[in-house]
Every structure is written in C-alpha cells, then in structure tokens.
Amino acid sequence: MADKDSETVEFELVSPTKLLASEPVEMVVIPGTEGDIGVLPGHSPLIATIRPGVIDIHEAGKISNQIFVGGGFAEISRQRCTILAEEAIPVN
User: How many CA atoms lie within 13 A of 8 on its CB side?
Assistant: First the structure.
C-alpha cells in the first residue's frame, strides 16, 4: 500500500502579512507566467513567477478550491509547493 505522504504535496500560500493556507493536496495548478503549472508529488524542483490568475487545488480527482492571486512567486520541491502571493482572494 502506498504511503499517504507520497500521494500528496504540501501546499502553502503566503501573503505579505500571513500564512493563508497550509495543507496536503493531491495536485495544485498554478498560473505561471510561461503557462499553467501542474504540481504533483515528486515534481522537479522549480522556482517560477506567477501571473495574476486562479490557483486550482485538486482533491479526489476534482477541483476542491480556487484562489485568485494577483501575481507572485512559486517555489516547488518534490514534497512542497509554496506560493508567495502579492494578494490572494478565495474564488468561492
């Protein structure tokens, strides 16, 4: 049986004033300046700039949450996706 940690990536969303989200998720799709980036567990390390757009958080094979970000940076490792956003607003 697969380890639960190997099936999720730790998603963190940080604004200039506070930590807005920190949770394990199946996949995150972020609006990179060169195009959307899908982040799954085991993703290659990457630092990217983010354009204004919507972050899609996936659970159980579907989008469970959406957050608008006004730009920023993403730091991605095999176990974690950290978004440093200029602003973040829940879509729902």
Answer: 14
Torsion-angle region of 63 (φ positive above 0: left; ψ -120 to 50: alpha; else: beta): beta
Angle, alpha carbons 29-35-40 (nearest 5°): 30
Question: CB burial class (10 A; 0-12, 13-18, 19+) of residue 28?
Answer: buried
Q: Taking a C-beta distance cutoff of 8 angstroms, is the pair 8, 41 a contact?
A: yes
Nearest residue to 12 via CA among 71, 74, 92 = 74
- Global pTM reads 0.88
Q: Which amino acid is at 12?
A: E
Q: Is the pLDDT of residue 47 over 50?
A: yes
- The whole-number average pLDDT for the span 73-81 is 96
Question: Which residue has 């998720």 as its token pair?
Answer: 25
